[in-house]
């Protein structure tokens, strides 16, 4: 199709052709085209088929108000082609068709509508139940839009930014630009959001305006160059607002162009004031076959011509209800479209200047008439216009029917900020009753039509917003208000709905194939408000998010129920479909690495995420870590435990704070000795364990588990918030590296690199010493026994970690010292019956359940957090209690978390497994489980359901005494 | 978490930086005299009022302070202290 070359409003570069593939043939668009306009210019009229009835659908609007033109692009389904910029070599396919959109073999569905009334999915397909899986499969095949491949992964790049502003203007039309300029004039930092690729709004493609000396598109150009040169205004084009929240937080998504380093960018704006200037769109006209390809909104037809240089049709009929519709008919007539007739639902009230132009061009004009029926099998070939009230009608053949009942405000952003909107009798618009502080509206969204009023309302809103932000511009705001009041106010809108009739093929919502008849069916079932009808019929729940049905549904319901007030349905973010990837943003890896991460990676470590860290889990491909475990048991291993939380607490009241959060008596810590301690919550449930040492007067160090380090500071301050205690808490976790040197030969290794006396006599189990390694590396060393062997836990400043790690490996080289990972540690500590919170415990597990009652001090004067609850739980014999189990089978290892039942016949759940592993040291599969009290006696037989096999197959285990390995604990005391 | 919160030390900051700490129910009730039911009520029972509620918040990504503020749970914005309270 040839495009118009000489239009001053054109936004495409006809010299730069862009090839793309449509149905396996190469087509061409031009730079600036959207996918939809490029297809339209290539002669495509039927873009796809509808969700339910497989009706042919074509280009109807231009801003993604409905799913008509959604297509599969480069394998991505449901791409909104109206707003997506054409890129080179895109592969574009039709959706929801069997064969092709033009000849869809499922097209017969359209005639089956009487078998598919509103709600038929819920009402018919579930009986008999046995048919449901088959019915669901068939429905899924026949209905729906794009097909998603389960293996699909979004391969684009997503970004995120968080700009701040004084004033955020939503909508870059004349009102928005005027508002931005006015606010910036008072020194405000302004952000201007525009969903289209350029500023200008409705002015961008319009010429006519009564009493205006300058064409509207030139006014738009003049405003946008002033905006561009204003340093106080940051403009985001191709950026649609998607959310508005309390305290004026605005979210938006930018669609990238080939020149941008991203495909989508999430923009979250903190702003003091918001101006909504989103303008108006056209309210769809309801008539039979109102969505037949060839029917489009006048605004869409005009933009195809003015912006993209494409004549939308040869012979056109217009059925409108607003002056803009008349203006579009005139302009398209001048551009070469043969306008056969113009019907207007309004009997009077038209702009006389426009009427005069229509008569001057000898265009047949029908005031008080509206389209009743569009005919044509796949595309419109004629239209029947009817006089409202009398039913007199006339038919016109045409290939384009530009139809709209009038304007409707793009008020969704206002609804997000202001809550429920109310019907305004003058404009026929839904508008807010009151605005929250700092929120303003301007332009066509308020029903203003006169260009001077639109601009003046923007200026007023800009000054008001600046004044709200504290600028000294109250006088300017007052003057702007006065100027605005002297100009034409909101226009009277049309509230026309449809000719009488059942409305069997009058589509209220295109996305979900909801007709006027379906709305009547919903009403007949007693769903009498739009909100319920929306749910029952699904009208407005599709990708257009009410862009088509939003205004008509409440009007229609109000008319059919004879209730006066039309009530709009609730608006929720996101206002446009947004890829979850866009919300996820750039997805940066936020985990921390320990100081010896790289060193371990070189040694073959496989890392896993633990809390906010990456930890080495294995050092070989053997997931049973047999060798790593054996090396610690019989020789010596080295573990990086830097992820453990490490804190210093000091000050006069440090001890009081520790007494409050730890269950035990912290005043009993002896010099040089380590105290194992646990923290409980108010329910007595264990939230953390670790060790505490006293390093000086009112000066303590303590450790926490890997996952708790972040919260411990908050926890201690929370539980001391009512006291004015004087203490300081320092989180040393990231500044402290920890190495656990464990195994019978651990001392032989450590001796080689320190002069300190680390003999068992000088440095016994359960104590700590501070000394230096060779070269002066300061360490705090603790003799702990988590893995059940002689071990030295070295706390080292993070900057010395690498040196100490290398030194130890070097010292242990001739003894075959090897690193071991978290999984080996897991097996080793399991054999010793040592718990890991979160593995052996869950939310409801208290200190007593874990057999750690000895950590609880009953000293009434201390009264730590959780003491009351522990006292109450003590007398309950049925609680789930930590229990050692040994599997009857020496090979089968059920997964962690497997359910335990009392016996295979009864199958009452009595607990579950925390951790279970094959233990070489014990020669059996052993584990720790939480089991109801009565079942914890040694020798009790338990049945375990492993979740994988048949429900009737259970494995068996016996309750045994813990620890499984070295019960006297001699090996850690050598 | 779109709300803005006035931290007594750091000033008005993004709600993301804070951690919610529950309704303000005053200091822990005193030990020996209280019954398990009273303790349960203190720990778990909340008023869940739609309206202005005094709550604990922690500036976890800032100064770490725990402080109380008044929030309108209907609109989810921080509000100034109602008359008679501070």
Task: Quickly describe the structure.
The complex is a heterodimer of chains A (974) and B (86). Chain A has 974 residues and is an alpha+beta fold.
Can you describe what's shown?
By secondary structure, chain A is an alpha+beta fold. Helices cover 22% and strands 27% of the residues of chain A. Chain A contains 23 helices and 48 strands. In chain A, strand 17, helix 7 (323-335) and strand 18 (338-344) form a beta-alpha-beta unit. In chain A, helix 7 packs parallel to helix 8 (352-360) and helix 10 (451-468) packs antiparallel against helix 11 (474-485). The relative contact order of chain A is 0.07. Chain B is mostly beta strands and 86 residues long. Chain B is globular. The mean pLDDT of chain B is 90. The longest helix of chain B has 9 residues, at 36-44.
Summary keywords:
heterodimer, A: 974 residues, alpha+beta, Ubiquitin-like (UB roll), FAD/NAD(P)-binding domain, eight-stranded mixed beta sheet, six-stranded mixed beta sheet, 22% helix, B: 86 residues, Folate-binding fold, two-stranded antiparallel sheet, 6 strands, 10% helix, 35% strand
């Amino acid at each position: 199709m040839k495009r118009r070359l000489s239009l001053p409003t054109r936004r495409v570069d006809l010299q730069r052709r862009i090839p793309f593939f449509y149905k396996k043939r190469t087509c061409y668009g031009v730079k600036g085209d959207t996918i939809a306009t490029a297809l339209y210019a290539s002669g495509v009229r039927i873009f796809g088929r509808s969700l339910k009835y497989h009706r042919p659908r074509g280009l109807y609007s231009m801003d993604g108000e409905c799913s008509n033109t959604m297509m599969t692009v480069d394998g991505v389904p449901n791409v909104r082609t109206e707003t997506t910029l054409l890129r080179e070599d895109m592969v574009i396919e039709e959706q929801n068709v069997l064969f092709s959109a033009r000849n869809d073999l499922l097209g017969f569905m359209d005639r089956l509508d009487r078998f598919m009334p509103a709600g038929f999915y819920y009402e018919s397909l579930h009986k008999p139940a046995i048919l449901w899986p088959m019915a669901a499969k068939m429905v899924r095949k026949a209905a729906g839009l794009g097909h998603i491949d389960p293996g699909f992964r979004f391969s684009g790049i997503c970004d995120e930014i968080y700009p701040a502003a004084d004033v955020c203007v939503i909508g870059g039309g004349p009102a928005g630009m005027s508002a931005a300029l006015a606010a910036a004039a008072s020194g405000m930092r302004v952000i201007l959001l525009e969903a289209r690729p350029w500023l200008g709004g409705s002015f961008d493609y319009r010429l006519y305006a009564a009493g205006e000396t300058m064409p509207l598109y030139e006014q738009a150009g003049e405003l946008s160059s002033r905006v561009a040169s204003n340093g106080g205004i940051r403009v985001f084009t191709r950026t649609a607002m998607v959310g508005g929240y309390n305290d004026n937080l605005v979210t938006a998504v930018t669609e990238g162009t080939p020149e941008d380093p991203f495909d989508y960018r999430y923009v979250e704006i903190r702003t003091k004031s918001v101006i909504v200037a989103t303008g108006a769109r056209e309210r769809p006209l309801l008539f039979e076959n109102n969505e037949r390809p060839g029917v489009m909104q006048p605004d869409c037809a005009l933009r195809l011509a003015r912006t993209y240089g494409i004549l939308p049709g040869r012979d056109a009929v217009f059925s409108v209800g607003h002056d803009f519709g008349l203006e579009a008919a005139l302009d398209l007539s001048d551009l070469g479209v043969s306008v056969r007739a113009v019907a207007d639902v309004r009997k009077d009230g038209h702009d006389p200047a426009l009427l005069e132009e229509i008569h001057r061009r000898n265009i047949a004009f029908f005031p008080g008439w509206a389209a009743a029926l569009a005919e044509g099998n796949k595309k419109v070939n004629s239209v029947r216009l009817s006089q409202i009230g009398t039913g007199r009608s006339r038919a016109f053949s045409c290939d384009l029917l530009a139809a709209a009942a009038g304007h409707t405000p793009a008020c969704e952003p206002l609804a997000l900020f202001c809550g429920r909107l109310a019907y305004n009798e003058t404009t026929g618009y839904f508008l807010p009753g009151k605005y929250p502080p700092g929120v303003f509206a301007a332009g066509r969204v308020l029903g203003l039509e006169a260009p001077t009023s639109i601009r003046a309302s923007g200026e007023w809103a800009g000054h008001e917003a600046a004044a709200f932000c504290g600028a000294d511009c109250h006088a300017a705001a007052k003057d702007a208000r006065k100027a605005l009041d002297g100009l034409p106010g909101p226009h009277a809108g049309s509230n026309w709905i449809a000719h009488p009739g059942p409305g069997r093929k009058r589509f209220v919502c295109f996305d979900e194939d909801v007709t006027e008849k379906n709305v009547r069916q919903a009403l007949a079932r007693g769903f009498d408000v739009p909100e319920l009808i929306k749910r029952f019929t699904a009208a407005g729940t599709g990708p257009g998010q009410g862009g088509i049905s939003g205004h008509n549904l409440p009007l229609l319901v109000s008319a059919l129920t004879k209730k006066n007030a039309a009530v709009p349905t609730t608006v929720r973010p996101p206002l446009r479909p947004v890829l979850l990837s866009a919300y996820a943003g750039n997805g940066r890896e936020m985990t921390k690495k320990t100081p010896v991460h790289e060193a371990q990676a070189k040694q073959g470590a496989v890392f896993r995420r633990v809390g906010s860290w990456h930890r080495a889990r294995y050092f070989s491909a053997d997931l049973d870590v047999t060798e790593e475990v054996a090396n610690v048991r019989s020789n010596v291993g080295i573990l990086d435990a830097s992820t453990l939380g490490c804190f210093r607490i000091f000050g006069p009241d440090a001890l009081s704070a520790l007494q409050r959060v730890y269950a035990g008596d912290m005043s009993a810590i002896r010099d040089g000795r380590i105290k194992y301690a646990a923290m409980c919550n108010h329910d007595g449930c264990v939230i953390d364990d670790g060790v505490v040492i006293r390093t000086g007067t009112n000066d303590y160090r303590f450790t926490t588990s890997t996952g708790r380090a972040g919260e411990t500071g908050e926890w201690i301050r929370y539980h001391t918030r009512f006291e004015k205690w004087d203490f300081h808490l320092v989180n040393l976790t990231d500044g402290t590296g920890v190495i656990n040197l464990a195994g019978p030969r651990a001392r032989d290794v450590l001796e080689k690199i320190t002069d300190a006396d680390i003999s068992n006599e000088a440095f016994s189990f359960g104590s700590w010493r501070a000394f230096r390694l060779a070269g002066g590396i300061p360490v705090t060393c603790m003799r702990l026994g988590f893995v059940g062997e002689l071990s030295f836990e070295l706390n080292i400043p993070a900057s010395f970690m690498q040196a100490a790690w290398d030194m130890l490996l070097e010292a242990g080289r001739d003894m075959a010292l090897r690193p071991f990972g978290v999984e080996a540690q897991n097996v080793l500590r399991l054999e010793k019956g040592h718990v890991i919170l979160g593995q052996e415990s869950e939310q409801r597990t208290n200190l007593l359940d874990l057999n750690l009652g000895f950590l609880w001090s009953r000293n009434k004067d201390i009264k730590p957090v959780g003491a009351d609850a522990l006292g109450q739980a003590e007398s309950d014999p049925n609680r789930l209690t930590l229990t050692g189990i040994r599997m009857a089978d020496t090979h089968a290892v059920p997964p962690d978390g497997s359910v335990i039942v009392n016996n295979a016949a009864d199958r009452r759940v009595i607990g579950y497994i925390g951790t279970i592993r094959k233990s070489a040291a014990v020669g059996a599969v052993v584990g720790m489980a939480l089991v109801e009290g009565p079942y914890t006696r040694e020798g009790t037989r338990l049945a375990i359901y492993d979740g994988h096999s048949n429900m009737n197959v259970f494995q068996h285990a016996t309750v045994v005494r813990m620890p499984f390995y070295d019960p006297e604990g001699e090996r850690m005391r050598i | 978490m779109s709300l803005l919160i006035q931290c007594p030390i750091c000033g008005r900051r993004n709600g993301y930086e804070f951690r919610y700490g529950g309704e303000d129910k005053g200091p822990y009730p005193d030990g020996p005299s209280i019954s398990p039911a009273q303790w349960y009520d203190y720990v778990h029972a909340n008023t869940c009022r739609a309206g202005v509620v005094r709550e604990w918040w922690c500036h976890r990504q800032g100064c770490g302070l725990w402080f109380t503020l008044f929030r309108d749970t209907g609109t989810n914005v921080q509000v100034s202290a109602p008359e008679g309270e501070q």
